[in-house]
Write a structure and sequence with these properties.
Structural class: alpha/beta
Oligomer: single chain
EC number: 2.1.1.80
Function: Methylation of the membrane-bound methyl-accepting chemotaxis proteins (MCP) to form gamma-glutamyl methyl ester residues in MCP.
InterPro entries: Bact_Chemotaxis_MeTrfase, Chemotaxis_MeTrfase_CheR, CheR_C, CheR_MeTrfase, CheR_N, CheR_N_sf, SAM-dependent_MTases_sf
Pfam families: CheR (PF01739), CheR_N (PF03705)
Catalytic activity: L-glutamyl-[protein] + S-adenosyl-L-methionine = [protein]-L-glutamate 5-O-methyl ester + S-adenosyl-L-homocysteine
Shape: globular
Number of strands: 10
CATH topology of the largest domain: Rossmann fold
Largest sheet: 7 strands, mixed
Strand order of the largest sheet: 6-2-1-7-8-10-9
CATH superfamily of the largest domain: Vaccinia Virus protein VP39
CATH class of the largest domain: Alpha Beta
Mean pLDDT: 93
Helix content: 40-55%
Length: 273
Amino acid sequence: MTSTNMEFELFRDFLEKACGIVLGANKQYLVASRLNKLMEQQGIRSLGELVQKIQVRSQLREQVVDAMTTNETLWFRDTYPFEVLKNRILAEMIKASPGQRLRIWSAACSSGQEPYSLSMTIDEFEKTNLGQLKAGVQIVATDLSGSMLNAAKAGEYDSLAIGRGLSQERLQRYFDAKGPGRWAVKPAIKGRVEFRALNLLESYATLGKFDLIFCRNVLIYFSAEVKRDILLRMHAQLKPGGYLFLGASEALNGLPEHYQMVQCNPGIIYKAK
């Protein structure tokens, strides 16, 4: 791939407008590594040519956004959010809203590891707190990428993906072997999760209200202005007293009138005011 600085700037502008992602000025290598194959297949020689063609070819536009927003993900990433959920938050939510179904939003769910980890956590809670979650839990998982959503819905993973954070015990309990080096999430775990296409720059109104939102390791890709907008709109989707979970390296600066910081030792979560 060849590209001038001006072409790279045009591509950066396109990507920010399309999905909010802000590319650093030194990220040409990342663009090349993610788009070289696609551009080769399409016979496109430069970023400038690509920017021209994505204005008129919606499928190519989708493929480019898809390639640029696909991120590697882990099972039970950072561990503590799932432990806090299981050992503290679920009991608190049940007490505050007895008999009501709990709703959790997994934003930017990628290939499904986070929402399925949440579903396994719910199952582990239920096994030690029989009858407490009578109304059940619904997990709504959203992502911008059509290919990621299709992979997540299928719920099948190879040994490389399985090896990223999943214990042998959970593999045995929650997955069915599908052949050499492939496993599928069991139907009971899948049944709790509903996958939907959503660009975080667009409206969340159709999602409904949530008790918990997991928006982890996502906001780091956005400008401060877009990040603030997303956090305000997520607050509007949280029920009063609901919780927002961010990534381990992310912090919520400002918005004290909307969110209260809660120390969990380890980790920090944010309670909606």
